Amino acid sequence: MGASSSFHPIWLSLWVATGALFLCFPLGVLAAHGVRRAPRVWQFLLEAVFLLPLVLPPVVSGLVLLLALGKNAPLGRAGFELLFTPWAAILAAAFVAFPLVYSGAKSAFESVSPELELAAQSVGASPTRVFWTISLPLGWPILAGGALLAFARGLGEFGATVMVAGNIEGQTLTAPVAIYLAAEDGNFALATRYAAILATLNFVFLLFVRLLGRRAR
Asked: CATH code at 47?
């Protein structure tokens, strides 16, 4: 295996985590904002649904996605063949990372003083304008921390990914899956190399999260 091909799972994992973040970040922010505005009786139910992927076994998440993306699902019947493609890996990573974006966004919005938002509304600012000019900018450090955690979670996703994307070398073989396969084959040198790279990257991300948390305080 050449040097470029041996590092392909790392690059693919970075690409998958980036794509997943672009997908789940706006959804998580909008979900947190929507729950905040929802009646209290709905808040508990919606939050439980949004946080469910955080506690589901990864293989259960993979099964949900497998059923949602299969040939008999609406997307499959429409001709979109996503299973065992990089797009399936992105969807799997986005699914499991979404709760971290949601939790970060919820904390970010709760950190914004309600008095500031009410003051802006009292002078005629619409809820949309308040969101874009007050809630989002003031909560940005915490939002960014949640986004980094979601990226790190997507980078390390294994269980759901292997069910819906498989392990096609050069196409869907992400680093976590490559670690498992290398260890299974007894190639612990390669498995350790991939593991060290992922651990280093996620360690750096966690440092940034801590710095952002200090800035938010």
From this structure: 1.10.3720.10
